[in-house]
Amino acid sequence: MPALLLLTPAVPAHLARLPPRRPAILLLALLLALLAAPAARAQQNLFNIPSADLTPQGKVFFQHQSNLYGGGYWEAKNHLVYGLGKGWEAGLNVVNLQMNFRRGNEWLGINRADRRVPLAPLVKLTGQKFFVLSPRLSTSIGTQVGLNPVRFGGQHRDLTHFTYHLWKWTPRHHVKVVAGPYLSDRGTLGAGNRAGLLLGGELPLSKKLLLMGDFISGSNYASVSVLGVNYLVTKRVQLCLGGMLPNPGSRNRAGLVFELNLLGYDPDADEPAAH
Question: From which residue to which does the signal peptide run (predicted)?
Answer without folding.
Answer: 1-42
